[in-house]
Write a structure and sequence with these properties.
Elements: E1 4-13, H1 17-28, E2 33-36, H2 43-47, H3 50-64, H4 83-101, H5 103-108, E3 112-114, E4 119-122, E5 125-128, E6 131-140, E7 144-146, E8 174-178, H6 182-194, E9 197-202, H7 212-225, E10 228-231, E11 235-241, E12 244-249, E13 254-257, E14 259-262, E15 266-268, E16 282-283, E17 286-287, E18 300-302, H8 313-329, E19 342-344, E20 349-354, H9 357-364, E21 368-374, H10 379-383, E22 390-396, E23 399-407, H11 410-422, H12 427-431, H13 442-457, H14 460-472
Parallel strand pairs: 1-2, 1-6, 2-3, 6-18, 8-9, 8-14, 9-10
Antiparallel strand pairs: 4-5, 5-6, 7-15, 11-12, 12-13, 16-17, 19-20, 20-23, 21-22, 22-23
Helix pairs in contact: 1-8, 3-4, 3-6
């Protein structure tokens, strides 16, 4: 089928975070933009990921409020869960954000929005329904899908993914979660705090990507909440039971529950694009790109999950900025993976930017300095009884090269260090910051100050100079 032919400056395939950012930026700069989206505007983050999951976590926080309230001299009654009301809260959260991602808004910006999938016909032509679109530049922002492992019996049982979890008509009695990554653990703690029994099965180490010491802070908290964590346990078989699902483990044990959530990772969504017709190469992580996010077809760029560099909404937005500079102005902008933070929204949270301690030691050896700053020295954390956790700062030649934070509001605290790495700030510039008191932000300033403490307070030269100046002052 050929049909209606269209010419455009920029064709964006996928209306998730990255695609919408590219389309909006290009259209507002005066480029002709066509945007393809066969599914929901806003993509995975708005409809199935970040927004509904954080809405659920917020509800779980309220449900958990009576636990430990007596430490503040407050006695609260146990929480009662209105599942229909909780689902309404999740839907409302999505609905309040939807207008910013809507077709109407983008058409108002001058974007031509077509609700079709796209497939390449040639290096610069894409078929979209009855349309054939020829574009000077093309951006692939098709995102990712849940990765379903090839486990014997899994296809015979009902299971949930992050895309279907929000359709539950009742709170699970016992939720089994396959996978101990960020998604699995966030949902594990949230459902446990809402009243479900929860068992997480992880074939390797939970939060394996993170610093082991920092991950332990989070895992201990989940166990304290009553989540059962089975690490180093592969699942060999899945089977149905009258009242739910059972998992057979490699050690012979069987774990049974009422519901199963598969959270074993995500895969790039590349089906049906006919990339080979456009000369676009792919790998296990997605489309092969260079540091400018160009594919092996120089007309085509990739952003977000499909670019194979990580699966974060804010990363997709960062990619969009890189691509816009290239396709609109021909600027040689390059991706800097070291400045992209990540966060796991458990309680306590876990956040990272730059190198972990192990990565930094491997790169810098004995020239690396590691500063550890526990939350139990922070006055705001003490007042709020949130002293579990620490900040770990990796420094090389006076500059931060990585920061790990496990503790309350770690996702907020990491922002300063993302700026420090992005702007290549020195530790002294962070130490010179004035933070309001009392705040958790003081943890960042204190860590920077700790770096200078031995240089100032244990230096004989500094002490001698101080005594000399004191004698000379009137």
């Amino acid at each position: 089928m050929t049909g209606h032919r269209m010419e455009t400056d920029l064709l964006v395939i996928g209306a998730g975070s990255g695609g919408l950012s590219v389309a909006a930026g290009a259209a507002q700069m005066g480029a002709r933009v066509v945007l393809l989206e066969r599914g929901l505007m806003g993509g995975d983050c708005l409809n199935f990921g970040c927004v509904p999951s954080k809405a659920l976590i917020a509800a779980a926080d309220r449900a958990h409020a009576p636990v430990g309230a007596d430490m503040f001299g407050v006695i609260l009654p146990p929480a009662r869960i209105d599942w229909a009301g909780l689902r309404a809260h999740i839907r409302d959260s999505i609905a309040r954000i939807e207008p910013m991602d809507s077709q109407e808004r983008f058409e108002g910006l001058g974007v031509t929005v077509l609700r079709h999938s796209g497939r390449f016909l040639s290096p610069d032509e894409v078929q979209a329904g009855p349309h054939v679109i020829r574009a000077r530049r093309i951006v692939l922002a098709t995102g990712s899908k849940p990765l379903i492992p090839p486990l014997p019996g899994l296809e015979t049982v009902p299971y949930l993914t992050n895309e279907t979890l929000w359709d539950l008509d009742r709170l699970p009695e016992h939720l089994l979660i396959l996978g101990g990554g960020p998604i699995g653990l966030e949902m594990a703690q949230a459902f446990r705090r809402l009243g479900s029994r929860v068992t997480v099965v992880e074939a390797k180490r939970a939060l394996a990507r993170e610093d082991g010491e920092m991950a332990a802070v989070v895992l201990d908290a989940l166990r304290g909440d009553g989540v059962t964590l089975l690490e180093g346990q592969a699942v060999t078989e899945v089977s149905a039971q009258d009242d739910g699902v059972a998992l057979r483990l490699a050690d012979g044990r069987q774990v049974a529950g009422s519901h199963l959530l598969v959270a074993t990772g995500r895969r790039p969504a590349l089906e049906g694009l006919d990339l080979d017709r456009a000369g676009i190469e792919t790998g296990p992580q997605g489309i092969r790109t260079d540091a400018r996010l160009r594919s092996t077809n120089r007309r085509v760029y990739a952003v977000g999950d499909v670019a194979g560099q990580g699966q974060f909404t804010h990363l997709a937005g960062y990619h969009a900025g890189i691509v816009l500079r290239a396709v609109l102005f021909g600027l040689p902008a390059r991706v800097r993976p070291d400045i992209v933070p990540r966060a796991t929204y458990t309680r306590p949270e876990l956040a990272q930017v730059g190198l972990t301690e192990a990565q930094a030691r491997l790169r810098y050896g004995t020239a690396l300095e590691v500063i550890r700053e526990p939350l139990h020295h922070n006055d705001r954390a003490i007042a709020g009884r949130q002293t579990t956790g620490l900040l770990k700062l990796m420094v090389h030649r006076g500059r931060p090269v990585g920061v790990s934070i496990a503790g309350a509001q770690a996702g907020e605290l990491i922002g300063l260090w993302a700026l420090a790495l992005s702007a290549r700030l020195k530790i002294g510039q962070v130490a010179g910051m004035v933070a309001p008191y009392p705040t958790l932000t003081e943890l960042n300033k204190r860590a920077a100050g700790t770096y200078f403490a031995p240089r100032l307070f244990q230096s004989r030269v500094v002490k001698s100079a101080t005594r000399l100046v004191q004698r000379m002052l009137p």
